[in-house]
């Protein structure tokens, strides 16, 4: 039986492991060996479990580890360690890049005032609210999210409430 799972989630991974444990499958094909495990320890433990169940883990790159030999175990451990090291380096580079950008004054996220679609459709949304349409129906008709409709109405109500300077 051949079953294909793409972009596997944790629960799907657990299902595949259950299939392996029940001897329903002989091999698992992955895009990269290192993508199967969440960490070095996780990958090694998974490889050992699969080995004990006589299930192969094969990478599309052609790598297949024979955990029966010391060389196979060494290569599996090295590959898993290098992959985890690479992930840590990428994470560190991203963090330092973000910190450097913030130091240069770079702003992240949506800039204030950039609500092109909401600003364009604001008057129509407010008109439909006055006509008694529900936020969900307005969102559906105007192809907006319900949250956007809610934000438009909330901004309108806040701008309508001007603080009084009189006492």
TrEMBL record:
It comes from the Bacteria. One of its GO terms (molecular function) is DNA binding. Residues 1-105 form the Resolvase/invertase-type recombinase catalytic domain. PANTHER family: DNA-INVERTASE FROM LAMBDOID PROPHAGE (PTHR30461), SERINE RECOMBINASE PINE-RELATED (PTHR30461:SF2). The keyword DNA-binding applies. The keyword DNA-binding applies. It comes from Nostoc sphaeroides CCNUC1. Gene3D superfamilies: Resolvase, N-terminal catalytic domain (3.40.50.1390), Winged helix-like DNA-binding domain superfamily/Winged helix DNA-binding domain (1.10.10.10). Keywords: DNA recombination, DNA-binding. This is Resolvase/invertase-type recombinase catalytic domain-containing protein. InterPro entries: Resolv_N (IPR006119), Resolvase-like_N_sf (IPR036162), SSR_resolvase (IPR050639), WH-like_DNA-bd_sf (IPR036388).
């Amino acid at each position: 039986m051949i079953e294909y799972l793409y972009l596997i989630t944790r629960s799907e991974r657990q299902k595949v492991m259950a299939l392996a444990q029940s001897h329903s499958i002989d091999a698992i094909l992955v895009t990269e060996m290192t993508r199967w495990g969440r960490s070095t320890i996780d990958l090694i433990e998974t490889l050992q479990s699969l080995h004990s169940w006589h299930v192969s883990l094969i990478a599309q790159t052609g790598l297949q580890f024979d955990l029966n030999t010391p060389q196979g175990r060494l290569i599996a451990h090295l590959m898993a360690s290098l992959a985890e090291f690479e992930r840590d380096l990428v994470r560190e580079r991203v963090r330092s890049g973000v910190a450097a950008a913030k130091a240069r004054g770079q702003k992240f996220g949506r800039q204030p005032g950039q609500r092109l679609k909401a600003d364009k459709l604001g008057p129509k949304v407010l008109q439909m609210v006055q006509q008694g349409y529900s936020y969900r129906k307005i969102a559906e008709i105007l192809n907006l999210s319900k949250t956007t409709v809610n934000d438009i109405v909330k901004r309108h109500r806040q701008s309508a409430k001007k603080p009084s300077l009189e006492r």
